[in-house]
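Final report, Chapter 2: Outcomes

The project's central promise was a pipeline that accepts a single protein chain and returns its three-dimensional structure in a standardized token representation, suitable for archiving and comparison. That pipeline is now operational. To close this chapter, we reproduce one record exactly as it appears in the project archive, with the input sequence first and the structure output second.
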Amino acid sequence: MAASDAIVIGEAWISEHFFTTDARSQSFLGRVHERRKAWEATAADGVGTPRTRFLAERGTLEAALGGLADLTDPADLETALAGIYKTVVGVLGFDRDGLVIDRDGPLLRVSTPGLTGAAPLVVVEALPVDSPEALRERGVRTLLTPHVVDDVEETSAARLLSALFVADDAPQFALVLAGRWALVAEQARWAEGRYLAVDLQLVCERNDVRQGGEVDRALTCLAADSLAPDADGDVWWTGVLEESVRHTVGVSKDLREGVRLSIEIIANEVVRRRRDLGLPPLPADQAQPLAKQSLRFLYRILFLLYAEASPELGVLPVGALEYQQGYSLDRLRDLTLVELATPRARSGTHLYDSLHVRVTVGLRGGY
């Protein structure tokens, strides 16, 4: 599945490939489908789920979030946010039976009955922000109401989370509600500037309710099923992040092997073409330079793949019809699938020349 701009992964909080791949196993999408199946089974028994509650409250929540920009009076804004956050907490299931919530100013500490020690999750109520990056600002007031930690009054969500995560009773996870944005932080990753954030307003507006679609993915990220502790104090996200790390290691191994095989293919093609042209074999001392140049050629292809997959960079005119039909890698791939009729065509350099032009012009700043 293509990455959703309503779900932001800050500083590789989770493996991007694990999070966005369409694979149904060893992937976040696989976990989303498991969660959707469980929700459907629960709903069939007449019990509410984050999905059924979201669908029931979506219109109201969308209107409330959209109206925040019109509120100029601080008291009116605080009242509106209190209502929104109560709705969000209810939709996500944090107020269900089986969870214990202790309010402490703008904090909700979430635990389970009989669980000793610190609450594994805190929900933080913050002021609306335009982007999740704003919640990383330490010198700006972002908390809905100030909160005292170790005799210091904190007004910044970033400073509060940093203080909470190093305390003796530190939570494992935090969910920050900041207007349209909901940010998930994990104890170790927060110090590295890593987080996951969901644009609730955008999710409401799009209402993508397909199996494994944006609504399913967003709710899986934020629901109490994922962030709140179970009876043993374990949090679902902990296992998923560990699985993501294992997945990344496996992908890295596959990538290294793929690079090695690609270099061999490119280098062997050079050797074959030299032989077809009647040129003498390359000397042994040219093996390493050939491998280096093959790697450079491979890097050109990877550069183009990244540039075409990232249109926001403006490196290539990927949105232009002329580019798609005449210059894109998709077109070059289609050309390689065509059986060429003549030896001259088979020994041509059109593909190489096309890649060379794209990379050269792209590095210079555009077509």
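Archive annotation: The first helix runs from residue 16 to 20.
This record, like all others produced under the grant, will remain available to the consortium after the project formally closes.
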